[in-house]
Each structure stands twice: as C-alpha cells, then as structure tokens.
C-alpha cells in the first residue's frame, strides 16, 4: 500500500496491521515519476486531492486494485482510466459535510460583516475609534442565499440559513429537478440572490461556470462564496468584476492554481481569502483519513468498498 501523506499514528498502525505500507514523506506533493516508480508493485494507493492520479500513473501500476482519495472530490483522479483497469476509486463523503458547511458560513459572515477587513485595519494601527458610519456591513436577515450544487454540503449550508433569517434557493441544472428543494434556474438565481455559494463538483462542464457573463448577471450588492473547487470560478473574470464594482465582494477557500492566488485579489479589501480550510478540523480530517484507510483495506482484502465513486 502506498500512502502519500503522514496520517495519525493510531490510523497508521491500523493500516500497517492490514498491509505493508510504503509512506511517501516528502515536503511537497509526490512527483509523477516517483509516484509511478513506487506504484509498480502496489495493490493500493491512499492519496490526497493535490496528488494527480492520471491515466499514465495508473498504467504504471499493473497490480493496483484501489485508489482511496482523502477528499470528497475526486477531480484529481482519472476515474475513467481507473474503471477501464478495474481499479476501485473511493472518496470520503458525509464525514466532511458539516465542517465545510460551517466554514462556508464563517466566510459569509466574515465577508458581509467585514471581519477580516477590520482585523487587518486594527493590526496595522489604522483604527482611530468608533464612529456612527464606520465600516458598515450587510445584514443577512431577509436576504436570499443562492446555492449552486445540490449535494450534501450545499444542503447542509441551506439548513443553517434560517438561523440567520435567510431564504435558501438552489440552482436547477442538468435538466433534473429535486422535488424537496426550492429551485430556480441558474440565471434567475444569479439575478436575484444576495449571497451565492458554490458547492458543485469540479467537472469539465463546471469549469469557469462563474465567468464574466455570470458575474455581470449578479446584483451589484451580491457576494460570491467558493468552498468547492477553484476552477469553477474564472479568477480573471472575478478580479475584473470586483474592480468594476459589479459585485460587492467575494470569499474564497479554493483557487484555480492552488496555492497561487491571483495578485489582484490579494490587494482587495472586499475579498476574504482562506487556505483551503473547508474540512480542516481535527475531528473531520481524522474521520476522512480513517474512512480512506477502511476503503483501501476493504478492497485489497476482496471486500466491497465502503464509499466507492460512481
């Protein structure tokens, strides 16, 4: 079993008890050439979202039975190539739903109430005291939260909306409707929502879903939140929209070319930037790792995966 990151000692011991473990312990993500070399004789791979598991990598692993991704998303893995080789791909759904939903609301509140902007001001000794009209933010009560992505995380975010007096609606996309959800077309959602939060998976169809055209459809008072995948937003278009004041602000936890961030966004006070913290709680990351290990061990032992992709 190849493991591409260190994991908690208790879970590592469990993995060692069930398989011979080859741990990659480098300071940066494993290079493709090293990944291919180490996978030559492996039956299992436990990886993370910034490990690129391409068709070429899979072709170099003739004995591979399972790729267990420590993430809910799996756009870093060529799932089609894996299936063609009868390799099971697994992810870690459910266990990170609440943590990511909580982070989404942290970003919404930080952006609309200008918390991080205020924090920066105080730290550089720019605050001169309370005044009646100083750093006025935006209240959430009575506003519409538009959610793009009807999966577990999107629904968990919507469930918390009433606590802030918000009405949540979902974008109806792909010709499918969900009878249990308040829906409207994507265009209607863009036009009418006060906060738009992205929770859709990264697919070819969703790349640059939020482009210049979409941003131009949004309210000038609207805020955009992304805790899904960076390339869903065209960051060049986002910088343009913010510079032209077509939207009020943005909060991002993910980026097009992580860990790079477009320089223009770094300079804007109405942008909140987090370093991919969606699932970053001790409880959630531990649960994700344990689920990935359980998936990998199940498959190499000839049993069904707990959470297979597709």
Give the strand content: 5-15%
Average predicted local confidence, pLDDT: 96
Strand order of the largest sheet: 8-7-6-9-10-11-12
Structural class: alpha/beta
The helix content is 25-40%
Q: Secondary-structure element sequence?
A: EHEHEHEHEHHEHEEHEHEHEHEH
Query: Outline, from the CA principal axes?
Result: elongated
How many helices?
Answer: 12
Give the biggest sheet: 7 strands, parallel
Give the second-level CATH assignment, the architecture of the largest domain.
3-Layer(aba) Sandwich
How would you describe the overall organization of this protein?
The chain is an alpha/beta fold. The chain has two domains: 2-95 and 281-300, NAD(P)-binding Rossmann-like Domain (Rossmann fold); 97-273, 3-Layer(aba) Sandwich (Rossmann fold). It is built from twelve helices and twelve strands. It has a seven-stranded parallel sheet with strand order 8-7-6-9-10-11-12. Helix 1 (9-18) runs parallel beside helix 12. The two termini are 23 Å apart. The mean pLDDT is 96.
Keywords:
alpha/beta, 5-stranded parallel sheet, elongated, 12 helices, 35% helix, 7-stranded parallel sheet, Rossmann fold
Describe how the helices and strands are arranged:
Layout: E1 2-3, H1 9-18, E2 22-23, H2 32-39, E3 44-47, H3 55-59, E4 66-69, H4 79-84, E5 88-90, H5 97-112, H6 115-123, E6 144-148, H7 152-160, E7 167-172, E8 183-185, H8 186-192, E9 195-198, H9 212-217, E10 223-226, H10 235-243, E11 249-252, H11 263-266, E12 271-273, H12 282-300
Parallel strand pairs: 1-2, 1-3, 3-4, 4-5, 6-7, 6-9, 7-8, 9-10, 10-11, 11-12
């Amino acid at each position: 079993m190849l493991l591409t990151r260190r994991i908690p000692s208790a879970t590592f011991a469990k993995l060692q008890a069930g398989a011979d473990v080859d741990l990659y312990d480098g300071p940066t993500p494993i290079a493709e050439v090293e990944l291919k070399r180490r996978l030559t004789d492996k039956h299992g791979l436990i990886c993370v979202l910034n490990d690129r598991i391409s068709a070429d990598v899979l072709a170099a692993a003739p004995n591979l039975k399972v790729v267990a991704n420590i993430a809910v998303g799996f756009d870093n893995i060529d799932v089609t190539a894996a299936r063609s080789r009868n390799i099971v791909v697994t992810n870690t759904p459910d266990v990170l739903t609440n943590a990511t939903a909580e982070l989404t609301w942290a970003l919404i509140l930080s952006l609309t109430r200008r918390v991080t902007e205020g924090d920066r001001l105080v730290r550089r000794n720019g605050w001169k005291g309370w005044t009646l009209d100083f750093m006025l933010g935006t209240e959430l009560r009575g506003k519409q939260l538009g959610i793009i992505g009807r999966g577990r995380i999107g629904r968990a975010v919507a469930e918390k909306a009433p606590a802030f007096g918000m009405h949540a609606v979902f974008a109806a996309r792909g010709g499918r409707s969900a009878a249990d959800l308040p829906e409207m077309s994507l265009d209607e959602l863009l036009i009418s929502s006060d906060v738009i939060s992205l929770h859709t998976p990264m697919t070819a169809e969703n790349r640059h879903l939020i482009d210049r055209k979409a941003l131009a459809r949004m309210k000038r008072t609207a805020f955009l939140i992304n805790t899904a995948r960076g390339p869903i937003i065209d960051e060049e278009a986002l910088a343009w929209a913010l510079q032209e004041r077509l939207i009020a602000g943005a909060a991002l936890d993910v980026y097009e070319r992580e860990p790079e961030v477009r320089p223009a966004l770094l300079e804007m006070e109405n942008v909140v930037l987090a370093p991919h913290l969606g699932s970053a709680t001790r409880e959630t990351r531990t649960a994700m790792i344990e689920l990935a290990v359980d998936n990998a061990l199940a498959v190499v032992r000839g049993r069904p995966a707990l959470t297979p992709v597709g």
